[in-house]
Amino acid sequence: MLKRFKFIVLTILSVAHFSVSYGQSKPNIVIIYTDDLGVGDISANGAKKVKTPNIDRIASQGLRFTNAYATAATCTPSRFSLLTGKYAWRKAGTNIAPGDAALIIPTNEETMPGMLQKAGYQTAVVGKWHLGLGPEGGPDWNSEIKPGPLEIGFNYSFIMPATGDRVPCVYMENYRIVDLDPADPIRVSYKEKIGNEPTGKENPELLKLNYSHGHDATIINGVSRIGWMTGGKKARWIDEDMADVFTNRAVNFIEKNSKNPFFLYFATHDIHVPRVPHSRFVGKSGMGARGDAILQLDWTVGEVLKTLDRLKIADNTLLIFTSDNGAVVDDGYEDKAVELLNGHTPSGILRGGKYSAFEGGTKIPMLVRWPAKIKAGTVSNALFSQVDFYASLAALTGRKISSQDSYNSLSTLLGGKTNREFVIQQAVNSTLGIIQGDWKYISPGPGPAINQQVNIELGNNMKPQLYNLKNDSAEKNNLADQNPGILKKLMARLEEVKKD
Ligand code: NG6
Ligand code: CA
What we know:
Elements: H1 2-25, E1 28-34, H2 53-60, E2 63-65, E3 68-69, H3 75-84, H4 112-118, E4 122-128, E5 156-160, E6 172-173, E7 176-177, E8 187-189, E9 219-220, E10 223-224, E11 228-230, H5 242-256, E12 262-267, H6 288-310, E13 317-323, H7 359-362, E14 366-369, E15 378-380, E16 384-385, H8 389-397, H9 410-413, E17 422-426, E18 432-436, E19 439-442, E20 450-451, E21 456-457, E22 465-468, H10 484-499
Bound molecules: 2-acetamido-2-deoxy-6-O-sulfo-beta-D-galactopyranose and calcium ion (CA).
């Protein structure tokens, strides 16, 4: 009898002990994944023309990376890699997804949010999705839309299906479009015009923001988009309110889960096009809509920081702030971003930008704060790739995973030395580059040298390119001919990684 009693007491004690240490040791995790923000776009990285005090606060209270990379120079493949720990170029169909694409993340393989769920986290995605939705053939917008975020490991989802410049321009909460009137069903096409709503091409006089290239289809809220849609009038978003809507959902999720470990993947629309910020930011940067969108993004970050402070969970929250790809100025709308740049350098000294195989494509701003573990005001020049978030967060939360591409770089993420011998970069046309040691190699291939519309050098070249990033971080001198040995080594390494 006594023995049995002892056993019960011990069991209760050990369960109690387990749950206490469980709650305390697992930090909350917040990833603020911004869109198209360049290394030069935040004052923490030296920007002078625009001030980002809230973003800078993450750096001053935590860690600022100077050598961190997204896996790709566009959104869909970068996000695919972030959430799966796998290079997107291993899987067909992972380039910039049309707004009616089927879900591109397999539901039968473990993902980062799924792994964190198993580790006891409540998980949420708020903001831009752009990873496809629904079964093969794409989603039926008027019924339950699945598979989607909930099938790959999120407990809660509040998203825009694709991008701000792609139809359908509606929010989706879990399986449903928000405020959809069944009497006004949504139809979407990326092939041809459907319905009879005005388009940017046919009715430019109706636009409040003109397009500069592309973006000439259905007009929603005075802005023409990529793709055509009809119906869903009540459900359509107002671009000016988008940052408020997403921030509100993100804050609500944090509040609801402040007493248990949570993972929030907060993917902002800012500073992607169309840049139509709320009136409280319009004209405030003096740099046009792009600068104003940076101020709006900074406000968003401030709201997240304030919420963590108010709930007294900032100390035990690992907060990561970064971007999906490098900067672009004119990405298809006449929003005065070019004319009003005023000497601001979104990509810093880097060559290229969004879409590019040059550094401006994938080198991104990255700040990490975890007051319980990271010394305030640290700067790290350690090489880091976003493909490692998956394995690093698995290590943090005690989950065993198997991944060929994602390495456990937790110590790097918290301010230690690099754990990576190399970083792989993917440009818009899937050209690959590899950085190893001081050197960077870009594989040869066809394609225009410059995307004239966005005025960005893409890095395409029929000859192999080799740059010494240590002496030449702006990639001015192709040293391939002078260094055949190094060239051969990097080429071979890239081939090895591709084979893996
Ligand atoms: C391009 C769009 C660009 C942007 C990009 C995706 C045109 C001419 N350009 O095709 O505006 O939407 O796709 O950006 O349509 S990303 O950040 O989501 O990858
Ligand atoms: Ca992007």
